[in-house]
């Protein structure tokens, strides 16, 4: 029911959620989660907690953890951190999404803003880090050893509806106005998910020495039409037809492995590719609690930002 996720008027949103999503999606999601569940619980929660603990040890300051739609909630995460600290002068908030999107970054910012203003806490947000050198270096170090004899690297990002790009465009006229809009300088790029995905892909390909024929970009996890293309599942089915039999897949929009990476890509995506005639499928895990990423994350948190609250 988050208006930043299903961005239509409340009555229509309620109809979509109650009439189409709730009757079917929970059972399907539960079945998918069963395939990746661990003895310790959800991989996303487990990995996020390991990341939190590693960052706290590295940075030497208390670090809390919160989930936008699960537990610990944002409110509970803040309260738990307050109980540990007693008080603090300023809170640094890190939305764990490298690329900005209305349905991820924006909804977290608004929820955190409401919770912290209510408590009178001064805070600052770490902006999207899609082009941060530390993040990119950690990604390069994660990807390079896994490539092996792969002919092709597919960078798969979480999909969003095209209309979200237009809604977050501060100019109101740039995003999707032309085929090359993401290549043309614009203030819209600060909140343009598509532009930031393209930049991340380009910078990683440069670091990995991949030419234009050896890599591609696609979007996964779509719900309905009008979403960003090309679609990851379509690409995985088409690549073998182009003679590409050995691939590596990485998901740079995710910093922690979760349902969308472990089940959708490493399981279903692998099957799609191999059933289409592919011979070798390598899934490159997310950064998770990799020490190089923890150091980069600590540096991001230490970079001065605009204080709010």
The portion of residues forming beta strands comes to: 5-15%
Largest sheet: 4 strands, parallel
What is the CATH level 1 assignment of the largest domain? Alpha Beta
Reading the helices and strands in chain order gives HHHHEHEHEHHEHEHHEHE
Helix run count:
12
> What integer is the average pLDDT?
93
Poorly predicted tracts of residues: none
CATH fold type of the largest domain: Rossmann fold
Please give the alpha-carbon distance between the first and last residues: 26 Å
Number of domains: 2
Q: Which strands sit side by side, in order, in the main sheet? A: 4-3-5-6
DSSP strand tally: 7
Radius of gyration: 20 Å
Question: Explain this structure to me?
Answer:
The protein is α/β, with parallel strands linked by helices. It has two domains: 37-128 and 292-308, Rossmann fold (3-Layer(aba) Sandwich); 133-283, Rossmann fold (3-Layer(aba) Sandwich), CATH 3.40.50.1400. Helices cover 44% and strands 10% of the residues. The chain is built from twelve helices and seven strands. The chain has helices at residues 10-21, 25-34, 43-59, 74-85, 102-119, 133-143, 162-167, 193-208, 232-238, 259-262, 264-275, 291-302; strands spanning 91-93, 123-125, 152-158, 215-220, 246-250, 280-283, 307-308. Strands 4-3-5-6 form a four-stranded parallel beta sheet, with helices on both faces. It has a three-stranded mixed beta sheet with strand order 1-2-7, covered by helices on one side. The two termini are 26 Å apart. The mean pLDDT is 93.
């Amino acid at each position: 029911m988050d208006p930043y996720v299903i961005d239509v008027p409340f009555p229509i949103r309620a109809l979509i959620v109650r009439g189409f999503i709730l009757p079917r999606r929970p059972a399907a999601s539960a079945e998918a989660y069963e395939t990746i569940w661990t003895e310790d619980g959800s991989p996303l929660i487990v990995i996020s907690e390991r990341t939190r603990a590693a960052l706290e040890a590295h940075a030497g300051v208390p670090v809390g953890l919160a989930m936008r739609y699960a537990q610990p909630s944002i409110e509970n995460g803040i309260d738990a951190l307050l109980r540990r600290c007693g008080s603090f002068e300023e809170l640094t908030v890190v939305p764990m999404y490298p690329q900005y999107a209305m349905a991820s970054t924006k909804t977290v910012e608004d929820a955190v803003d409401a919770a912290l203003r209510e408590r009178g806490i001064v805070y600052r947000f770490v902006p999207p880090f899609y082009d941060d050198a530390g993040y990119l270096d950690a990604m390069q170090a994660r990807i390079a050893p896994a490539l092996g004899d792969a002919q092709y690297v597919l960078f798969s990002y979480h999909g969003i509806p095209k209309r979200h790009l237009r809604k977050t465009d501060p100019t109101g006229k740039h995003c999707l106005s032309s085929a090359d809009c993401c290549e043309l300088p614009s203030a819209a790029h600060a909140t343009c998910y598509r532009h930031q995905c393209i930049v991340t892909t380009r910078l990683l390909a440069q670091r990995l020495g991949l030419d234009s024929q050896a890599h591609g970009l696609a979007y996964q996890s779509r719900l309905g039409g009008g979403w960003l293309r090309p679609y990851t599942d379509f690409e995985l089915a088409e690549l073998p037809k182009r003679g590409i039999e050995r691939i590596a897949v990485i998901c740079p929009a995710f910093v922690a492995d979760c349902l969308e990476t472990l089940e959708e890509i490493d399981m279903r995506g692998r099957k799609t590719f191999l059933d289409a005639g592919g011979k070798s499928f390598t899934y490159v895990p997310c950064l998770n609690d990799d020490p190089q990423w923890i150091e980069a994350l600590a540096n991001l948190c230490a970079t001065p930002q605009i204080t709010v609250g």
